[in-house]
Amino acid sequence: MGEETYEDGFGALRRCFERLARPARWWVKSAAGVPRKILVELRWRLGDEIMALPIFETLRAKYPVAHIAVLSHYPDLFENHPFVDAVNTIPTPVDRYLFLRGAPRQVFRLEHYARRAGVSLPVSRPHLYYEDWGAPCLDALPKGAGPLIALAAGASWKTKRWRPERWRALAQVLEQRGARLVELGHAPEALGLGFCLGGRTSVREAACVLHHADLLVCCDSGLMHLALAAVTPVVALFGPTDPFILIRKEPNFNPLVSEMECSGHWNRAEAAPAIGVCPYGHECCLDTITVDDVIEAIEKRVTL
């Protein structure tokens, strides 16, 4: 994964010592009734960190008096979080270290996190605990009676993206039918999809915009997960990845899955895919998803 971890800060001998000492400290503190200190390392992509959020509730349920700290690239996710005691502050000493970065392609993501953390599979979905969903950028959102629909055309892989001309055609239809549009995220090119906040928000600000929106339309991306954590319905377009490896039992989640032969290939057990590369050489792996398909899915969630 190419990024330094908490343990990479140790030399080889210190790393070996800590891996032996942590279980001993954990046992001794448990026997003595002394609160133990848990460090959970995420520091991964936005969507992957969001998918791990339910783990903290199950950790707290299993260890109600433990000090739980997290290392995160996105501390905004942990604002007012009731099950986390510290963000990006390493406790001394660390009695248990949980490394949740990385996951098998064929395993339901939350199930993998639960196994790594040694807890039962959470029943809750990712959730933000903001007490205040206000942000200055909300004042600039388009006014009107129509539904506020957020559009996010960006995705980390080219193979996950829908064609720009289809995004523009979708936006045109939505605007003609009275929807108010706001563009979020980092698209590979300027799309001009309504009021543009693309690249101009923090994670917290984007979450607040999504919380106030009636719907997000997007590809498989971090904003998809952020919207669901902000309790906003999502229509998401999928090509090379399988939506049900990532998200299950989420009533706000409305995936549209490509019918191309490469659909879901990244998560097939028999495949050995390269990141962001279509094994069939398709320029776009979402071409069977039409603008009409997306409009139909939107109409099931909002009134146009």
In words, what does this structure look like?
It contains 9 helices and 10 strands. The chain has 304 residues and is of the alpha/beta class. It folds into 2 domains: 6-117; 146-299, Glycogen Phosphorylase B (Rossmann fold, 3-Layer(aba) Sandwich). Helix 6 crosses helix 7 (222-229).
| Count, helices | 9
Which radius of gyration do the C-alpha atoms yield? 21 Å
What structural class do helix, strand and pairing data support? Answer: alpha/beta
Q: What string, H for helix and E for strand, traces the elements in order?
A: HEHHEEEHEHEEHEHEHEH
The CATH topology of the largest domain turns out to be Rossmann fold
Question: What would the keywords be for this entry?
Answer:
single chain; 304 residues; alpha/beta; Rossmann fold; 2 domains; 9 helices; 10 strands
